[in-house]
Amino acid sequence: MQNNLLNQSLRFWKLLFQGNIEGNTMRFNNNIGKGIVHAYHISDELEMLLFDYTLRKGIEFKFDTFDDKEVLEYVPILFGEPVDNKLMINEEDGSVDKININSIGAFCSNSYRSLGLDYTENMGKPLRFISIRLRNDVFQKYISKSENIRSLFNSEKEYFIYEEFDSSMKETFNRLYEISEDSDYALDHFEVYAKFLVTSFFTKVNDRKTISKSNKYTYHLDPVYKAKEILKDKANTKITIDELSKECGLSGSRLRALFKETFGITIHQFQQDERLETSRKMLLEGNMTIMMIAMELGFSSASHFTMAFKKRFNITPKEFQKKEYASKLSA
């Protein structure tokens, strides 16, 4: 059974998308777009909203229309989208700053009333995201487990915490969309997967080696997200920090600091991870030798590539190929 706050949240999305509510589901198919929002009261401690829609026209909305009681009783953590969207932040001077967020991930903030989402450039694109709502006392238990987490989620200061998905989080996110409501164990599956995403989010944040002293990310982050997109687009191209900083309009030291603060990983490590992810695709294609892949991705030698690959995936490139080929043959 859903509680009043979850019903109220579903009504918010009904008004935004001009849809209709039936049971725990809101559907819409109009000039705004076509889609569905499911609301699940999993337990007294945990609720979830699951979104799946495609827009026919661009929209903007702000979170400041949520009821104060809802904000105080439940803390939402958003997973998945925005993809190719802009996060809007209302600055103290009344201006609105828009940050491009171009990757699948999770974010949490204690200043949702100053936040919104800009979907004006997403017509025709399938959009998915999940809002996992933790009862406030449960959220406090999560952040009390680590000094790093307590420091970062300091309620006396404004924070916006973002973490990109790893492969297991992507897989779990996708599985949530595959669960049939008709299953007798649907809510059990939802609970297990939702808790895994929440725990993974806090674990990834806690694994950051450094914590920002101010505990508040700068909101002028377009250059940092631009740097990340350049690194993703040029995974097989060697790009120096000087070249990257010039393209982004920041000094090298400033870019390094903001990148680490925002994503919890160094530019060098992110670039290496992207190259290694690309190498897995190339290994599966089977068109190049390990030496050729190493040279193509800018590694100094095949042994250097093999060492980095094994450190990242706990398996050598050759073993990875054999394992995947064997899996295909047995399928």
UniProtKB/TrEMBL annotation:
InterPro entries: Homeodomain-like_sf, HTH_AraC, HTH_AraC-typ_CS, PchR_regulatory_protein, Tscrpt_reg_AraC-type_HTH. Keywords: DNA-binding, Transcription, Transcription regulation. Residues 225-323 form the HTH araC/xylS-type domain. The keyword Amino-acid biosynthesis does not apply. One of its GO terms (molecular function) is sequence-specific DNA binding. SUPFAM superfamilies: Homeodomain-like. Gene3D superfamilies: Homeodomain-like. PANTHER family: REGULATORY PROTEIN PCHR (PTHR47893:SF1). This is AraC family transcriptional regulator.
